[in-house]
Write a sequence for this structure.
């Protein structure tokens, strides 16, 4: 049995949920923040032979401080390979070599579609967001997509204003019909309240596990679609002592992960 | 040649510019000079745009943006970019949106003289439902002539001018980089001519010590400008770190139109060139802060090209 200390914060739990989705030997394309943290926890625990790459052109970086962007200078010294966007996004991702892609979204819907483009009308938006960047190709072409999101009725939506990155689009068969590669798509949505997975038949996100201080009822109330609940729904396993040790002693000694609490990940 | 001359001679209002950089090696000295010279109606492009594109948009020099993404990274959404789109301040730019796969591939196609290139992303997304100034030529969906499968084609891009910042170049323009590449190599080679801004000008002999690092050959290069600290507040591997402190200053200033204008007056219009910029930085924040950005030094493993 694993030991589960109870002094963890929610972002640490979310990072651990991400780590547990990564299998040994996986090639993982990461952004900064949760994705990097999760992939590195995995490397130190369940997936020592997983390798990471950043879209900016870096493969298997060995940073000695947490990278604050995918272009961070600390990714350069010690990396196994440095090229550019064409190398990572085309030669590796488009060519089918990336096992896991890790995304976050301003808005996520029940089919795992993600909006990072606009809130409101495209031509006259209420809020102009950054755009796709690498998100669309990662969501289109990585074999398994992990999504990180805040769990409230604004960030999660029945339908989103703009599909920047396709999940299962409008249901079963839609990815294939659109011309996206077979056997790709979102695997999980990890929120500050729950872990949701996708039904193999309907392609809708359902509640798989609820985090320790949450409940099925609370999550249903915070989810703006008719959320199905797994027959074996249960509490999310809290961070293990070993996972917390890796986060606090090796990956993030200055506790930068705490900034996510300020962003609502509580 | 000095930066003001390079921009005067080689960048015209209305031009289509590729501007290299990815936090890494952003040609900020050139960007400030473009703003100082009041160029107008530029079309700008690169994958993953950041504070430099935000500043140009806020300064009103941009008409069109062929982009994938624009944010201030750690500091959140691009304030000037948002004001332009949401409130038409100083005016609304036109955007044609692609991704960090498709846009670099369009530049790659341009660099290789190919008319278009197939890409596997964007399918099933709303990126295919929004078209701006490129109209029907934003993309074409065809049945593959080989197996009949639906295939997305995107057009090649050939900017009028590419502006890149590199670690070193020789006087004729052979330009060398190391570290994160972004779309710098494809963007530079797709352009009709290149302005190379560099940390140091070295001899042709030094270039020849490690020629595999050269990303643009001199025959494509129209101007070489030695501009130490030229990527600040971005970084240049082996020379200086990202200036996170200055990044937050820009974010705070650009929160309001007034703050942004003050920032431009202080850091762009009030200074005649990069030398004055460095001087001002030291006077404003102290030599210690400036010196702290300087990279340590680590000799790479020497490579041998001997035979």
């Amino acid at each position: 049995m694993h030991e589960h200390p109870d002094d963890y914060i929610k972002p640490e739990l979310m990072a651990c949920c991400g780590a547990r989705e990564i299998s040994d030997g996986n090639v993982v394309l990461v952004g900064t923040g949760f994705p990097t943290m999760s992939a590195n926890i995995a490397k130190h625990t369940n997936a020592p032979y997983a390798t990471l790459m950043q879209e900016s052109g870096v493969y298997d970086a060995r940073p000695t401080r947490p990278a604050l962007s995918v272009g961070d200078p600390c990714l350069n010294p010690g990396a196994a390979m440095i090229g550019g966007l064409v190398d990572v996004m085309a030669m590796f991702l488009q060519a089918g070599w990336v096992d896991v892609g890790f995304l976050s979204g301003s808005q996520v819907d029940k089919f795992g579609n993600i909006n990072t483009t606009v809130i409101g009308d495209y031509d006259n938006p209420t809020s102009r967001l950054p755009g796709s960047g690498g998100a669309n190709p990662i969501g289109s072409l990585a074999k398994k997509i992990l999504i990180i999101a805040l769990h409230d009725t604004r960030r999660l939506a029945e339908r989103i204003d703009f599909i920047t990155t396709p999940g299962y689009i409008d249901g079963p068969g839609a990815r294939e019909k659109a011309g996206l590669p077979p056997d790709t798509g979102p695997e999980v949505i990890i929120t500050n309240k729950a872990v949701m997975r996708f039904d193999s038949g309907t392609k809708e996100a359902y509640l798989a596990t609820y985090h320790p201080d949450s409940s099925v009822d609370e999550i249903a109330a915070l989810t703006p679609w008719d959320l199905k609940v797994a027959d074996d729904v249960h509490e999310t396993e809290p961070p293990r002592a070993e996972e917390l040790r890796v986060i606090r002693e090796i990956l993030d000694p200055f506790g930068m992960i705490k900034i996510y609490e300020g962003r609502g990940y509580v | 040649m000095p930066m003001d001359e390079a921009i005067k001679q080689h960048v015209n209002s209305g031009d289509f510019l590729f501007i290299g950089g990815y936090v890494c090696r952003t040609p900020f000295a050139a960007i400030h000079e473009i703003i100082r010279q009041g160029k107008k109606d530029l079309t700008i492009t690169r994958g993953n745009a950041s504070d430099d594109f935000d500043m140009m948009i806020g300064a009103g020099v941009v008409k069109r943006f062929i982009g994938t993404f624009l944010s201030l990274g750690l500091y959140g959404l691009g304030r000037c970019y948002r004001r332009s789109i949401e409130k038409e301040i100083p005016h609304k730019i036109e955007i044609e949106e692609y991704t960090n796969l498709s846009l670099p591939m369009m530049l790659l196609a341009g660099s290789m003289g190919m008319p278009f290139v197939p890409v596997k992303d964007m399918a099933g997304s709303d990126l295919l439902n929004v078209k701006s100034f490129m109209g029907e030529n934003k993309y074409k969906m065809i049945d593959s002539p080989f197996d009949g499968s639906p295939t997305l084609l995107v057009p090649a891009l050939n900017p009028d001018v590419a502006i890149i910042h590199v670690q070193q170049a020789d006087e004729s323009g052979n330009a060398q980089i190391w570290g994160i590449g972004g779309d710098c190599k494809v963007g530079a080679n797709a352009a009709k001519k290149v302005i190379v801004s560099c940390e140091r000008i070295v001899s042709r002999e030094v270039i020849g010590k490690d020629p595999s690092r050269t990303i643009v050959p001199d025959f494509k290069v129209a101007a070489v400008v030695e501009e130490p600290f030229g990527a600040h507040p971005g970084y240049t591997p082996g020379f200086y770190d990202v200036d996170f402190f200055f990044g937050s200053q820009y974010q705070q200033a650009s929160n309001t139109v007034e703050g942004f204008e003050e920032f431009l007056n202080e850091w762009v219009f009030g200074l005649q060139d990069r030398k004055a910029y460095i001087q001002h930085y030291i006077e404003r924040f102290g030599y210690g802060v400036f010196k702290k950005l300087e990279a340590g030094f680590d000799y790479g493993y020497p490579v041998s090209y001997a035979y």
Notes: Residues 1-243 of chain B form a domain with the Glutaconate Coenzyme A-transferase fold (CATH 3.40.1080.10).
